[in-house]
């Protein structure tokens, strides 16, 4: 069995105690991180290695950034950045092979304020992801990360609250649905088809977090051959209540 998790850390150095505690208390084999907010040279590789992980990363000072960690194995980098726009300098996609599994780590643009230039960039980036993803459908592959998309109303505690947000816009949801029509399988929904599951909550000015703001926008999409072996899926919700947490919680799947 392989355990795969994805976690938007919202600043890998600022949230390092949370990340290290979580890695130390769990037994994931592959971990994708998003929103590192650090340059390559400041990525905390030594602290991560001390917990038994090797890693590759694609950083960017103050913004974006993605990383792939593997326990007891070295991830072999296959790609950084999506094809289709050589002028795109954002660090949002990283891909590796780990023991016969292809792992793509995704930090899709948020797109707010929408409509506007940032939303247009989001849709162009999403279109490039959809196009490129077709080349991986025949592999044992998982494309996981922060998609910044709330696919359906069941993926929000209060859907009406998000109608003016780019993560809930029809165009964003349509692009996500397009990936599913190609053959990608939403692993969490495969295991929990009708359950309200959330991976993000707003920060609260009073401390803690606003549970009514829950959204599911961190996803693990698996290729058809891998979908047959999904054993379990969930979210480590408890991390959201730790001291100085990310606004996201890790989502995970187990595959045979």
From TrEMBL:
- CDD domains in UniProt: ExoIII-like_AP-endo
Instruction: Tell me what organism the protein belongs to.
Output: Mesorhizobium abyssinicae
InterPro entries attached here? Answer: AP_endonuc_1, Endo/exonu/phosph_ase_sf, Endo/exonuclease/phosphatase, ExoIII-like
EC number(s) stated in the UniProt entry for this protein:
3.1.11.2
Needed co-factor(s): Mg(2+)
Keywords from the UniProt entry: Hydrolase, Magnesium, Metal-binding
Upper lineage is: Bacteria, Pseudomonadati, Pseudomonadota, Alphaproteobacteria, Hyphomicrobiales
Is the keyword NADP in the record?
no
PANTHER family under this entry? EXODEOXYRIBONUCLEASE III
- Pfam families the UniProt entry points to: Exo_endo_phos
A GO molecular function held by the record: double-stranded DNA 3'-5' DNA exonuclease activity
- The source's superkingdom equals Bacteria
**SUPFAM superfamilies membership:** DNase I-like
What is this protein identified as?
Exodeoxyribonuclease III
| Residue ranges of every copy of the Endonuclease/exonuclease/phosphatase domain listed in the record | 5-248
């Amino acid at each position: 069995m392989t355990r795969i998790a994805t976690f938007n850390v919202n600043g890998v150095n600022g949230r390092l105690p949370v990340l290290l505690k979580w890695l130390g208390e769990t037994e994931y084999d592959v971990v994708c991180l998003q929103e590192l907010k650090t340059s390559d040279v400041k990525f905390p590789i030594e602290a991560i290695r001390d917990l038994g992980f090797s890693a590759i990363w694609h950083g960017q000072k103050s913004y974006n950034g993605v990383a792939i960690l593997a326990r007891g194995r070295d991830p072999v980098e296959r790609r950084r950045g999506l094809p289709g726009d050589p002028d795109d300098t954002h660090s949002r996609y990283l891909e590796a092979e780990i023991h016969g599994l292809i792992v793509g780590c995704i930090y899709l643009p948020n797109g707010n304020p929408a409509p506007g230039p940032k939303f247009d960039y989001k849709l162009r980036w999403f279109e490039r992801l959809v196009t490129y993803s077709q080349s991986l459908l025949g592999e044992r592959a998982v494309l996981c990360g922060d998609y910044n998309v709330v696919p359906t109303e069941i993926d929000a505690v209060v859907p009406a609250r998000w109608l003016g947000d780019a993560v809930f816009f029809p165009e964003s949801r349509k692009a996500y649905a397009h990936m599913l029509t190609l053959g990608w399988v939403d692993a969490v929904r495969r295991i929990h088809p009708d359950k309200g599951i959330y991976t993000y909550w707003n920060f609260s000015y009073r401390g803690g977090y606003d549970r009514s703001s829950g959204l599911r926008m961190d996803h693990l999409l698996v290729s058809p051959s891998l979908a047959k072996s999904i054993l379990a899926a969930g979210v480590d919700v408890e991390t959201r209540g730790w001291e100085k947490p990310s606004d996201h919680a890790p989502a995970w799947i187990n595959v045979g």
